[in-house]
Amino acid sequence: MRRLLLIEDELNLARFIELELQHADFSVTVAHDGKQGLGLALDEDWDIVLLDVMLPGLNGIEVCRRIRNHKQTPIIMLTARDSVIDRVSGLDSGADDYIAKPFAIEELLARIRVILRRIDQFEDKAPLLSKSGLTVDEQSRTVKKGGTVIELTKREYDLLLMFMHNRNRVLSREQLIEGVWGRDCEAETNVVDVYVRYLRNKLDEPDADSFIQTVRGVGYVMR
């Protein structure tokens, strides 16, 4: 049975979601404030965390960020705030998906299934990727260069993984945003430039060719 942690301070909504998820054969634990939810998220293993943004004690963006500092547990953010900047803030803090209130429970369940399918496919097929002394172990989500572990944020890791899976293929900024940030993300394309720079700073050696090369007017490629 899949284990879900729901962090939601609206008691009626939390109870409704809990009952619907239990009906769908999930094991659900509920926390009603940010600090309690963060403690549960870090202390136990979960298949997915459902995280409200507006929480007492510690807001959801900060909870998400702190979870990401320690774990790669999938996170779906739940919020009544649906502006572009709110969605981008949630995704940039490390969330895997973002759903605005009010939502149909069928949509939430569908988004949960998408993430669980992705996890199952990842666990079945997780390979060891390598290039010029750079290795990515998809099973442990570990990146090493010359045997030294390179610490990457979730977004940096996902971007690197997309390049590793598409070597010698030129990827546009739009393709990278859709593949890493998600189809519904409305971030500006220059966010890709920012994260490519982050990766280069962590991966490249002085006076050596970059692992990720710029194709002017098109996007980026790892050759």
Automatic annotation (TrEMBL):
DNA-binding region spans which residues? 126-223
Ranges that cross the membrane: none
Q: Tell me the organism.
A: Paenibacillus contaminans
Supply the name of the protein.
DNA-binding response regulator
Question: Which residues get modified to 4-aspartylphosphate?
Answer: 52
Q: Which Gene3D superfamilies does the entry link to? A: 3.40.50.2300, 6.10.250.690, Winged helix-like DNA-binding domain superfamily/Winged helix DNA-binding domain (1.10.10.10)
UniProt-recorded Gene Ontology molecular function terms: phosphorelay response regulator activity; transcription cis-regulatory region binding
A biological-process GO annotation: regulation of DNA-templated transcription
> Per its UniProt record, what SMART domains does this chain match?
REC (SM00448), Trans_reg_C (SM00862)
What are the protein's UniProt keywords? DNA-binding, Phosphoprotein, Transcription, Transcription regulation, Two-component regulatory system
Annotated OmpR/PhoB-type domain ranges read 126-223
From the record, what ranges are coiled-coil? none
